[in-house]
Amino acid sequence: MKKGAIFDMDGTLFDTERLYAQSWAVTAETFGQVHNPDFPFAIAGSSGEEMTEIIHRYYPDVDPHLFEESNSSMKTGFSGPISLDRRGKC
After folding, report:
1. How much is the pTM?
2. 43 CB contacts (<8 Å, ≥6 apart)?
């Protein structure tokens, strides 16, 4: 009998959306913008030109490519232990 497991790390084991939302808030502040709390929900799951358009819609005064690049660099800097609450959420 074959044995195996499939894991979906994005939401099944770890709720990473909170971390992504925090990274977008810090990115907005870094660019001198007031963080819009609706932005992380709008940009979730987007990429490429769609992401660029969403960034421009919420933060028209910034270069959307630099904004996304800055956020991507920040996300790769997440390291160290992950704190979990009693439900196993980040």
Report:
1. 0.69
2. 24, 51, 54, 55, 58
